[in-house]
Amino acid sequence: xxxxxxxxxxxxxxxxxxxxxxxxxxxxxxxxxxxxxxxxxxxxxxxxxxxxxxxxxxxxxxxxxxxxxxxxxxxxxxxxxxxxxxxxxxxxxxxxxxxxxxxxxxxxxxxxxxxxxxxxxxxxxxxxxxxxxxxxxxxxxxxxxxxxx
Length: 149
Known about the structure:
The protein has four helices and no strands. The protein has 149 residues and is mostly helical. It has one domain. The protein is elongated. Keywords: Membrane, Transmembrane, Transmembrane helix.
C-alpha cells in the first residue's frame, strides 16, 4: 500500500489554488471597461473569473485543513484519508477547470474542454464534502479520546 504524504499533497493543492487565483487575476485584466455590444463576452469572462476565485479559495481551504490537521494533530487513518481525498479532489478540479483556461489565455487558443470541465465542476463539491467529513471525523475522534481519558 502506498504511503501518502499529507503535507506534500497539501503543498501541491496550495500551489494549484494559487494558480487558480492568478488565472482569475489574469482573466479579470482582460475584461474591457466598456465592452462592445451587449457585453455578453465580458459577462462570460466575469463568470470565469468568479469560478477561478471560488475554486482556488476552496482548494486553499482544503489544503490548509489537511496541513493543519496533519501538522498539529495525529489523525487516525479515516480522517486523514478523507482530508487527503478532499485536497486531491480540489487540486484535480483546478487541473481540469482552470489550467485549460490558463493555457487558452496564454497561447491565445480555444481548447474544447466540455466533459473535462464537467468532471472538474463535479470534483469541487466532492472535495468540499470529503474535507468537511474529514474535519468532522477528526473532531469526533478527538472528542471520544478526550472523554475516555
